[in-house]
Amino acid sequence: MEASGQTVMNRGWVYREQVTRAKAGLSVLQYYTQHYRHSSQAEWQERITAGQVLLDGKQVEANTQLRPGQSLTYHRPPWEEPEVPLNFEVLHEDSDLLIVAKPSGLPVLPGGGFLEHTLLWQLQQRYPQTEPVPIHRLGRGTSGLMLIARSPLARASLSQQMRDRQIHKVYRALIGPAPNLEPHFTITQPIGKIPHPVLGYIYGATPDGLFAHSDCRVIKRNAASTLLEVTIQTGRPHQIRIHLASVGYPLVGDPLYDVGGVPQCPPATETEKLPVPGDCGYHLHAYQLAFTHPQTQQLVSFVCPAPGELSD
After folding, report:
1. DSSP 8-state class, residue 201
2. Model's pTM, two decimal places?
């Protein structure tokens, strides 16, 4: 990202955590190397030596053993974030909540090299007095409706509705050609954690995962693709991507989930990184959202027209 020909850096960030009993006895270097595999041991050694990692607020040697309850802070210097679409449309605004149309490519929350280039950061800058809080998440590559709380009442009420599965969410999804697919079908494949060499774990189709429920309807078929409407009764991470892949119909362009609903983890090379959930390319859009307004107690519903191939 550049402005007036100069590289623009963010403000950096401080990552704080407390040492648990299970991690006591590890050295500072072992702790970071084992927990944050996105960086090598040599890179963590360099950061510790440079004083970017503090233990109980003080500089520390890499081989210092950790004790339960100690405080670790990693002071990450400012960095250049990947470019993403930062413009988003506010479809509804009142004193309690916002309805936002998120573009594909914009992360919702910080992580994976993104801090200020996130929907949350941009909302905080636009609404600094109300501390906007996303009630649910969309994947970085997913476009469409996001529900944002602006008041303590809305945060409590909408979060409870999410837990009670009272928020109605409908998506548009694009899969490959499926001439023999039933016009209506339901997927209840459990979703759980699967080990990942960089992230530690990742979500996928597992026999012993948590219950997940997706109701699917074919909207349009053609020779190259099939457009589906998917209503999710549960909100597991990457549920639609995993569910459709688990029954043999991964989303068109999905770089992570293929037939079977298990993440693709080919051996990493020096030139290619392992695919992660935040990689874009798939076709998924949060089309409709309905819930009870926390202030008026009226049922409200919003629709965000789907882009490109996801429209009917």
Report:
1. E
2. 0.88
